[in-house]
Design the sequence.
């Protein structure tokens, strides 16, 4: 692994340190990041480092690409999912969905949103109009499945939710049924799928990034001694680099070799979840 470059995510309008806790990457090598502390969504050109941003009415937590020109961002403080149009380096507000709780993690797959909530802790599956298809909150015994599910990632057949207090990643199908778990991860945070169905997850207290098999049985350590690892993101379209941000303001780009393949991994900045 080698560091290739740093990207400073600060802009002249930022009044506080940047707390980046959500990130996604477009096929055009644009980084879209949620700055919890200053409350904008920022678009960063990886090659030039130029930044444009769109200020939001409340702090953003997580971000996902919905289609070729639309992002969805969670605003937990006001219980809202905000859709944002992106074109080249520009951003503009679109419609928004009012939801029934403090929404944190969000992941889109083919027009279906998986969204995690706190207070109460739950997972909801909904369409892009906000119509709730499934709510997952308790098991067959009436016990809460979640405690603090901050992040979620999805593919065509699986939903993976990291629960920082339960110390586990929980594997669901799209019917909301629990399929498996990977347990004993100290404070798991960000989570992101690879093409082979495995996924990255950050262990905040262990300062590690792990790779977990899709069936949740196997786990290997990919990075160690990572300061304050939070969200992670891997992008197949830009698979020559890995991206990591420091505690404040800086995104670092890394190369990581996994099974003789280069992948992109992002672990992000330290912040307080309530901002």
Sequence:
């Amino acid at each position: 692994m080698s560091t290739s470059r740093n990207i400073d995510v600060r802009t002249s309008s930022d009044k506080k340190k940047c707390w980046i806790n959500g990130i996604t990457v477009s096929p055009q090598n644009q980084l879209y990041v949620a700055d919890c502390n200053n409350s904008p969504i920022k678009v960063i050109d990886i090659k030039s480092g130029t930044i444009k941003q769109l200020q939001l009415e409340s702090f953003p937590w997580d971000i996902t690409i919905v289609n070729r020109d639309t992002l969805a961002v969670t605003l937990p403080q006001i219980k809202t999912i905000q859709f944002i149009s992106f074109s080249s380096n520009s951003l503009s507000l679109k419609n928004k969905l009012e939801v029934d709780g403090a929404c944190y993690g969000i992941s889109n797959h083919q027009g279906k949103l998986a969204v995690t909530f706190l207070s109460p802790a739950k997972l909801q599956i909904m369409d892009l109009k906000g119509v709730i298809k499934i709510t997952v909150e308790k098991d067959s015994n009436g016990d809460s499945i979640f405690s603090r599910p901050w992040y979620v990632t999805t593919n065509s057949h699986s939903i993976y939710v990291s629960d920082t207090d339960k110390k586990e990643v929980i594997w669901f199908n799209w019917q909301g049924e629990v399929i498996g778990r990977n347990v004993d991860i100290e404070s798991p945070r960000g989570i992101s799928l690879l093409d082979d169905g495995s996924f990255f997850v950050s262990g905040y207290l262990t300062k590690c990034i792990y790779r977990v098999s899709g069936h949740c049985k196997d786990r290997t350590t990919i990075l160690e001694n990572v300061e304050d690892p939070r969200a992670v993101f891997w992008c197949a379209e830009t698979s020559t680099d890995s991206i990591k941000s420091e505690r404040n303001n800086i995104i670092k780009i890394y190369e990581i070799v996994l099974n003789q393949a280069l992948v992109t991994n992002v672990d992000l900045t330290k912040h307080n979840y309530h901002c």
DSSP finds no helices and 25 strands in the chain. The two ends are 32 Å apart (CA to CA).
